[in-house]
Amino acid sequence: AKTGLPVSFPSNPELEWCPPGHGDLFSTIWESGLLDRLEERGFKYLFISNSDNLGARPSRTLAQHFENTGAPFMIEVAKRTPADRKGGHIVRDKVTGRLMLREMSQVHPDDKDDAQNIDKHPYFNTNSIWVRIDALKAKLAAYDGVLPLPVIRNKKTVDPTDSASEPVIQLETAMGAAVTLFDGATCVCVDRMRFLPVKTTDDLFIMRSDRFHLTDQYEMEDGNYIFPTVHLDARYYKNIHDFDTRFPYSVPSLAAANSVTIEGDWTFGRDVMMFGDARLSDQDEPSYVPNGEYVGPQGVEPDDWV
């Protein structure tokens, strides 16, 4: 971050390399020859989604809708809720008339309030896209295999698990940003069940709970997709190893929970149930929720709470 040079980290050289952004996908399928092989076998369309979106799945309905539109590119969007106000959203370029994907990291500070206004910008990008192979091939050929996508600057540390390690700038591109390169590109608003991302351990906490079950088709399914608000103390739950250590059996039941706030270092026994606005306060020492306990607004409830 200080010099603009590639980072050096001799204790673990692998961390000198950042993960690719999903905008790299287009160059990868071009250089690998995959687009040519698909076209040779009669394929006309691609459906592409993030691997961390557990709600993404093939859809014959959406495939037919995409073909009916005749559009070269289509983004699945969903209605924004207050929890999504910081996510990437769709806007229209006043000069070209084309759709654009705008991430919050690309928003000027003076425009952040408007950008997070879910009434003014009611749709967010789910990072599930549909694209016509012939249109994508033509666009990649026009740009020698590298689409001119906006570069996103992410502030990180060279060791993501150590906030005291050297600050770095991680550069990446987003695949949805390609929408602005295509005339006639469109969006389709989908149900929330098609967008179940796991970006943080807060998300993972919900996905591993009894709010979800796997269908016979191995799809994640919930009753209403209106989830409790979850805040886990980042000091103890941010990294997956720390998270798994503190939930050695499974995460608590969330069927009756409106929100969950865990402050401090808590480890959980079996069959713990959370209800209402469940809260655990920092005890300034490692603490434990015993098997079968109920956690509510007052913390671990007494046995006679009913």
Name the shape in a single word. Answer: globular
Largest sheet entry: 5 strands, mixed
Question: What's the average pLDDT?
Answer: 91
What string, H for helix and E for strand, traces the elements in order?
A: HHEHEEEHEHEEEHEEEHHEEEEEE
Question: Oligomeric state of the chains?
Answer: single chain
* Low-confidence residue ranges: none
Main sheet strand line-up: 11-12-14-16-17
Task: Work out the strand percent.
Answer: 25-35%
The radius of gyration computed from the alpha-carbon positions, rounded to a whole number of angstroms, is 22 Å
Question: How would you portray this structure in words?
Answer:
The protein is an alpha/beta fold. Helix content is 19%, strand content 27%. It has 8 helices and 17 strands. The protein has helices at residues 24-31, 34-40, 60-69, 112-115, 133-142, 201-207, 234-237, 240-246, and strands at 45-49, 73-79, 89-92, 99-102, 123-132, 152-157, 167-172, 186-189, 213-214, 220-221, 229-232, 253-262, 266-268, 273-280, 287-289, 294-296, 299-300. The strands form 6 sheets. The protein has a 5-stranded mixed beta sheet with strand order 11-12-14-16-17. Strands 1-5-2-8 form a 4-stranded mixed beta sheet. A two-stranded antiparallel sheet has the order 3-4. The longest helix has 10 residues, at 60-69. The chain starts with 23 loop residues before the first helix and ends in a 6-residue tail after the last strand.
